[in-house]
Design brief:
The protein is an alpha/beta fold and 571 residues long. 62% of the residues lie in helices and 15% in strands.
């Protein structure tokens, strides 16, 4: 992402907020920041004039006139401090509002249409660590945008204010050229312009590699953090495997990338800091050397000398803004690239064309007609599937690993866009999908059982009786206990909780993706019997391998390398 593309991406990231429903509040806050910034510059101009008077009075040894000047300085300093403090305070208010707005929109876009899943399914660039992009990158983008913009406004205003002062104070520089004399008006302005332009160019040459290094540092840090999260989430499996050594090796490899890149970042930053500090130190002596001849020949007094030095410094700081802020600019560009890539990829997966046609029918059965399921690269998993699953009937989908059983369920759920065909449910039917590993949110066990429904204010179901029926009655006294239940309960127990969810949600149709794989055969049979008894009109589509499932289903859909076969199952 270079040049124009980077600018377009930055503008795309910014404009959404400044055209939102909060635009007037944002404009008022930004206006306040700008006015306070201009006020600070005005105070610096007053301070510049004060410095001329103070040092002139000091040189004249007019001590009686010094005390009023001290009081004048106190007023200028107080005004500057108040404006500086409130400029930061108002900017931080705007930063909070902007970050909140962006975070809400990104979370909404990430969760909309299962984009959080589609991003992983589609893969590609710009999709690693979406949690970091939404949390850290948005924060840095907003913070750096405001700080760099306010800094630019402040330096631009300072330049406009002090360049005229410096021009007037510089006067003309006479350079003898043979018999002629070249007169250069405002020569100190030309010196600082040439010095700053050259300095900015050299700073860019030295520091441009920081952009890529900052980009990689954010990615490596996020990858390292995520590897530890993965171990925490899969601690039991790793413990059973005794996988501490390979996990430790993985940690070390990822951390070594963090450290290696950070060393490169440190070295490049060191070179830039050497240059920036040398540049600043040289800029401190240059105005003294340039103004000293006028002081020596009496053209200006001590006050004029100090005013000239200060004005030169303000102009120099303004023109050197990009040199001083280069490290922040490099981070900013890296953040734009990461956040822009993530945004573009979310827009891509949300806009993926899907030829699945989802609708309703006037019958009493799920109807599939000429359904084809593909992989993201275009390979066909299944084609030409047409069948019906009436209310109260059970369909078992079986086949070898990788034949597309679970992917077919994803397509029917509407989260898999690769394929085509017609899918029609009876009008008003509610569906529910259960994966092999149920998701248990953090919180109370009661909340985990009802998920994705909220816990009703008046419960009509007897959770204790349902828990007892599924062999986990010991949990009845812990319904309001808050804990990480996915860690406490075995996978088989979690799957039994998922069946209780079905009974609480009471869908018209449920899709089970190997949802009894961790249960023993007796528990599996009891789970299906409970559905049959308590929800007799519910249609069920199961994915499974066990032959014990045959007697619980009416038909079997066998998938084999792109082809399919539908057959009745004997009682």
């Amino acid at each position: 992402m270079r040049g124009k593309a980077l600018a377009v991406t930055a503008w795309h990231l910014m404009r959404s907020y400044w055209k939102s429903e909060e635009k007037w509040t944002a404009a008022a806050l930004m206006g306040g920041v700008v006015l306070l910034t201009l006020g600070q510059v005005y105070m610096l101009v007053l301070n510049n004039d004060w410095m001329r008077d103070f040092y002139g009075t000091l040189e004249a040894r007019d001590f009686a006139a010094l005390w009023p000047l001290v009081g004048q300085f106190a007023g200028i300093a107080a005004g500057f401090i108040i404006m500086a403090v409130y400029s930061i305070y108002v900017r931080q208010i705007l930063e909070i509002k902007w970050r909140t707005w962006m975070t809400d929109r990104y979370l909404e876009a990430w969760m909309r249409r299962q984009n959080y899943y589609r991003l992983q399914a589609d893969g590609g660039d710009g999709v690693d660590n979406p949690d970091q992009r939404i949390s850290d990158d948005i924060n840095e983008f907003v913070s750096l945008t405001l700080s760099l913009f306010v800094g630019f406004i402040q330096q631009l205003t300072s330049l406009a204010a002090f360049i005229f002062i410096l021009w007037e104070l510089s006067g003309n520089l006479s350079v003898p050229l043979g018999d002629a004399v070249l007169s250069i008006p405002g020569y100190m302005v030309w010196v600082t312009v040439i010095y700053s332009v050259a300095g900015t160019y050299i700073a860019h040459k030295i520091g441009r590699k920081l952009i890529g290094l900052n980009f990689d540092q954010q990615r490596y840090e996020a990858d390292f953090r995520f590897s530890m999260v993965r171990v925490r989430e899969n601690s039991e499996s790793i413990a059973f495997y005794g996988g501490e050594k390979p996990e430790m090796q993985n940690f070390q490899e990822r951390f070594s990338m963090v450290i290696s890149n950070f060393w490169a970042l440190m070295k490049r930053t060191k070179f830039l800091n050497f240059y920036v500090n040398g540049y600043a130190q040289l800029a401190a002596i240059v105005p003294i050397l340039l103004a000293l001849p006028k002081f020596i020949d009496g053209s200006i007094n001590m006050g004029g000398l100090m005013q000239t030095i200060m004005a030169f410094g303000r102009v120099q700081d303004a023109l050197s803004y990009f040199v001083d802020a280069y490290s922040s600019i490099a981070r900013y560009i890296a953040v734009i690239r990461r956040l822009g890539g993530f945004t573009q990829h979310m827009e891509k997966v949300e806009g993926l064309p899907s030829e699945f046609a989802f609708g309703t029918n006037g019958g009493n059965a799920l109807m599939l007609q000429d359904v084809q399921v593909d992989l993201p690269d275009g390979r066909k998993l299944l084609e030409g599937l047409s069948l019906a699953v009436p209310a109260g009937k059970y369909l078992l989908i079986s086949g070898g690993s990788g034949c597309g059983k679970s992917t077919l369920l994803r397509a029917l759920a509407g989260i898999w866009p690769y394929g085509r065909g017609n899918v029609a449910l009876p009008s008003g039917w509610r569906t529910m999908f259960l994966p092999q590993r149920p998701y248990l949110p953090l919180g109370s066990l009661r909340r985990a059982i009802y998920y994705p429904q909220p816990v009703p204010e008046k419960e009509t179901a007897d959770l204790g009786e349902l828990l007892e029926r599924f062999g986990i009655g010991r949990l009845a006294d812990r319904l309001d206990e808050v804990d990480d239940w996915s860690r406490i309960l075995s996978l088989g127990e979690q799957q039994r909780l998922a069946f209780i969810r079905i009974l609480l949600f009471r869908p018209d149709m449920v899709f089970l993706d190997e949802s009894t794989s961790a249960m023993d055969e007796q528990r599996e049979a009891e789970a299906y019997d409970a559905l049959k008894e308590l929800l007799p009109e519910m249609a069920v589509v199961s994915v499974g391998h066990r032959s014990t499932l045959f007697k619980k289903h009416d038909k079997k859909l066998q998938l084999t390398g792109g082809s399919w076969q539908l057959s009745a199952l004997a009682d």
